Amino acid sequence: MRNSTPKDIGAIDFGLMEPEEYRDMSATKIITADTYDDDGFPIDMGLMDPRLGVIDPGLECKTCGKHSGSCNGHFGHIELAAPVIHVGFTKLIRRLLRGTCRDCSRLLLTEDEREEFHAQIDQSRKLGRDLNDVTKAAIRQARKNDQCPFCGEVQYDIEHEKPTTYYEVQQVLTSEYSQRIAGAMQGNEEEGIERTTPDELAEKTDIELSRINEILSGSFRPREAQRKAIEKALSIDLTDEDTNKLMPSDIRDWFENIPDEDIEVLGIDAERSRPEWMILTVLPVPPVTARPSITLDNGQRSEDDLTHKLVDIIRINQRFMENREAGAPQLIIEDLWELLQYHVTTFMDNEISGTPPARHRSGRPLKTLSQRLKGKEGRFRGSLSGKRVNFSARTVISPDPTLSLNEVGVPDRVATEMTQTMLVTERNVEQAKQYVANGPNSHPGANYVRRPDGRRLKVTEKNCKALAGMTDEEETAGIQTVGPGWEVNRHLIDGDIVIFNRQPSLHRMSIMAHEVVVMPYKTFRLNTVVCPPYNADFDGDEMNMHALQNEEARAEARVLMRVQEQILSPRFGGNIIGAIQDHISGTYLLTHENPRFNETQALDLLRATRIDELPEPSGIDDEGVPFWTGRDVFSELLPDDLTLEFISESGDTVVIEDGQHVEGTIDSEGVGEFGGEIVDQITKEYGTTRARIFINEISTLAMRAIMHFGFSIGIDDETIPDEASARIDETIQEANDRVNELIEAYERGELESLPGRTLAETLEMKIMQTLARARENAGDIAEEHFDDDNPAIVMAESGARGGMLNLTQMAGCVGQQAVRGERINRGYEDRTLSHYQKNDLSAEAHGFVENSYTGGLTPREFFFHAMGGREGLVDTAVRTSKSGYLQRRLINALSELEAQYDGTVRDTSDTIVQFEFGEDGTSPVMVSSGVDHDIDVEGIADRILDGEFESEAEREEFLGSKQPPTNLSEHADSRRVDSVPEVTSDD
Amino acid sequence: MVDVSKHELVPEHTVVDEDVIDAVLEEYDIDRTDLPKIKYNDPALPEDAEVGDVIEIVRNSRTADRAIIYRLVVD
Predict the structure, then answer these.
(1) Which has more pLDDT, A226 or A268?
(2) Is the pLDDT of residue A604 over 80?
(3) pLDDT above 70 covers what percent of chain A?
């Protein structure tokens, strides 16, 4: 089993199954509804017949001889006493009934029409369109013919009563035709209809007067044409509907006569699917393995829902046969037939509208075939595409800044549970033995071994030493010891590659490969710089880890999925991994004012990096002590020949020349996680490994820097002097006055409306504007009183966290609260709260919060604030569920598209979607993200060449600027000439 | 009525000659029906386009300045 070669699926045919085929594949006919006899043995030709497969371990299958687990089970069959309709095909059956002749069963289309639809079907097939559109049109066309073009038989309407009943509706002459005609001939004075004499009628209808009299007396039934003429003359209806139920056997006979050519016009392949096979005469019985019975604790057997349903079918089937043989009246037979139809229908689908679902004794609806497959928990979405996997672990994550961004800290208890398969060879046999000897419980140990003969053994505390051959008595015990050819399932160790994932997996960076670092305690540890791609934080987030089980997977993961390979995001071509939050505050403090550090301090800053020796000091201070500036310390981490210029988040120009940071502030624009220019440039020009080193070192340097300066934020940092508070109060009072003026103007009717707005809307807008300006002013006043080293300012300016708005709200004024983009207008009748007068339009009454967060909100302000806050929460909740569904549909639609080697994007049927991937055929991560600075392609090429060749001559040879001597004798002369001057110059 | 084909946002649509089509189909190793489709009643189509023709569309592209796309006219 283990070494079986994979096989290609050549083709899959979809079609109907012939009754004969059901009988052929059947292991046994099922005739009794009983399952087990009194001794608990399955009854022969019962629903649990041993030939249908085995479920009890230890028993042997009577059909294939295999044991439970390896025997897939075998189908049986029930011979139905009467044909029944397959619910899955009711629509198609209806279509065929309507489109074919009731007498000769031919498709009701003329030769020309057939040709036409045949061509259309071929065309649709080629274009990959839905064939249903064409076949539907064909049936519509066929229904228009109310006479068969071949045999001339008149066609009747087919009515379908869901789910499985069909009627033929005929229009027949009503029995009271003479009364109706006589009544109509009387006329109606009220409605102004005149009397008609038989003479007149005869004239109008072209029927002889004697015939009219016969018809009126009821002794002659008018023929079709005469009926129509009379109906027209008197504008009456002389017909009655006569419905005639089509029994499944009738339908089956009908369909049997449809010629093969005719159904081909409807897109059905007659070779594979004859329409009469849609009417079941034989019912396949699923193998017992598909409907295992369970033994309850009390020894009672509990059968599967499908088995219950099959029992019902067999019971009715038998009763049907008995009644028919006994010559029961037609009425009873029809009832039983309907009952059989019901059971077969619900066996296949128990959620049909219009049919009561079949229920269990407890009242729970049975889960039959269709219910097993359908929906999220069904076989397809639940079991086949969404499998649960082995070799996976899940736990809480926590941060560890000492790890590389490529690494993940794995708890030892996870590492000892998850294993990697190690193929033992001559070269690693000692290591393998050591792992086995350590046993399953101590860390670099092993849990299982597989001997060359294929037996798998569990490594236990007891047998580990013996398996490893590290005891004296191993020979006497006769235990084989680990050697070449064995497989050892050893624990995860440092450096193993694993896949790490955080849901929701919205983009490819949600699943990345990490290298294992085994650690104590219970959480997965990760470097904080990989939080942005996973969108992770540490407030209780959990993540999943998967151990890879073969060498190909490990190699692929390492080359394609490792975190450092994902630094650039294909979404916008810039880096998605970079310094975050405090890292950015750190680099800002380090470079903004370019502070000085003495030797100890400078060394401390760089101590977690590769830099062991400080560069030349930046200068000597007044006391004669050498110092290093922040920018020079930062420059140590840059590649030596990096040259770059850009505008930083704080607004100054950053200049980097030949790996020296000359000027400007390093902040989120330089090293941040969404398009940090330096990180981006390094990744593209120096490769992902250099970028990984840079990001790691930047984050540690930044942490050292921020710890050197100290960084904290508290209430006092947002408190402003009384004088400033007074000014803010004044501004707000002014704004309030201004709002009141507007309201008064509005009430006096003096307000002029803005174009396209009503007066009330204009007022609202103006009030909103005024209040927004008031908040801005308050913010400006507050800001004046903060120094540049205020932590909130540092964070906002560097782009580390928060913005000026947050600062304004903390120190100045929280401002207008909004629900649905308007001032708060809900609550009581004509007012927001009962604290206000009705129709009070003032700022205060509609959710303007005058106070700051530090100052504290009044209860009413707090309430309005909560209203605005709740809208935000609801919005995010709604957005995530909406966008999740959108994502699912988008991914399902795009999942089959693939970029081909010829540069096109095609779907699985080879239809071209894009002639060139992205129209330019390039990957977004390989392209320069900024317009300002292109990637130095020449420079990269030079650097690679420099590294590749030892001497200038070798390099020139490779580049083809200098041809190497290909034939010694040919170039012997020139070589000698070259060497002569050297010799001469020597003396 | 507005002639949409004159609108600045509608790229140029032209009917392609048979030999050019053959070259394109050859290049991508496809049948005509594997091309992207365009509806016959699409207002951007040139007057003389028939069902079964192949249309060349030259678009301004954000990534590649100019992108050429072929579409098969279907009904």
Answers:
(1) A268
(2) yes
(3) 95
Q: How far is the C-alpha of A322 from the C-alpha of A190, rounded, in Å? A: 63
Are B63 and A918 an interchain contact pair (Cβ–Cβ within 8 Å)?
yes
Decide if A912 and B64 are in contact by the 8 Å CB cutoff.
Answer: no
B64 vs A contacts (CB less than 8 Å): 916, 918-921
**Could you check whether the bond before residue A259 is cis, i.e. omega within 30 degrees of 0?**
no
Please report, for the domain that includes residue B37, its CATH number. Answer: 3.90.940.20
Q: Say what the pTM is.
A: 0.74
User: Which pLDDT score is estimated for A376?
Assistant: 83
Q: Domains in chain A, ordered, with CATH? A: 175-237 (1.10.260.40), 304-387 (no CATH), 390-417+493-563 (2.40.40.20), 419-491 (3.30.1490.180), 582-709 (1.10.274.100), 717-875 (1.10.132.30), 952-987 (no CATH)
Band (pLDDT 50/70/90 cuts) for residue A698 is very high
Q: Which residue, among A915, A917, A922, A925, would best test binding to B if mutated, counting the most B CBs under 10 Å from its CB?
A: A915
Helix spans in A439-557 (H): 464-467, 474-477, 531-534, 551-556
Q: Collect all residues of chain A within an 8 Å Cβ-Cβ radius of residue B67.
A: 915-916, 919-920
> CA nearest A908 in B: which residue?
B34
Predicted pLDDT of residue A931? 58
pLDDT in tens, A640-658: 888 888 888 888 888 998 8
Q: What single string gives the DSSP state of each residue in A596-659?
A: EE-HHHHHHHTTTSS--S--S-SEE-TTS-EEEEHHHHHHTTS-TT--EEEE-TTSSEEEEETT
Q: What is the pLDDT of residues A885-916, one digit of tens each?
A: 888 888 888 989 999 998 899 988 888 899 88
- For residue A906, what is the DSSP state? E
Percent of chain A's residues with pLDDT above 90:
21
Tracing tokens 């020449």 back to the chain, one arrives at A938
DSSP state of B49: -
Closest CA to A282 of A19, A582, A601: A19
Give the tens place of pLDDT for each residue, A464-496.
877 877 776 655 556 678 888 888 999 999 999
**Chain B residues within an 8 Å CB radius of A137:** none
Shortest alpha-carbon distance between residue B7 and chain A (Å): 22
pLDDT digits (tens, 9 = 90+) for A552-590: 999 999 999 999 999 998 888 888 999 988 999 999 999
Cβ contact B37–A127 (<8 Å): yes
What's the ipTM? 0.91
Cα A829 from chain centroid (whole Å): 46
The DSSP result for A227-257, as a single string, is: HHHHHHHHT---EEEEEEEEPHHHHHHHHHT
In chain B, residues with a C-beta closer than 8 Å to the C-beta of A911 are 33-36
Q: For residue A985, what pLDDT is reported?
A: 43
- Return the residue in A116, A916, A919 with the most chain B beta carbons within 10 A, the one to mutate for interface testing: A919
pLDDT of B59 over the 70 cut: yes
Question: Cα–Cα distance between A439 and A451 in angstroms, integer?
Answer: 17
Q: Which residues of B touch A902 (CB under 8 A)?
A: 28-29
Q: What is the mean pLDDT of chain A?
A: 85
Chain B hits for A912, CB-CB cut-off 8 Å, are: 28, 30, 34-36
Domain limits for position B13: 4-74
Radius of gyration (C-alpha) of chain B in whole angstroms: 13
Chain A residue set in contact with B, beta carbons under 8 Å: 126-128, 902, 904, 906, 909-913, 915-916, 918-922
- Chain B interface with A: residues with Cβ < 8 Å: 28-31, 33-37, 59, 61-64, 67-70, 74
Cβ distance B36 to A127 less than 8 Å, yes or no, reads no
Question: How many CB pairs lie under 8 A apart between chains A and B?
Answer: 44
What's the structural domain count of chain B? 1
In this structure, the strands spanning A392-399 and A524-526 are parallel
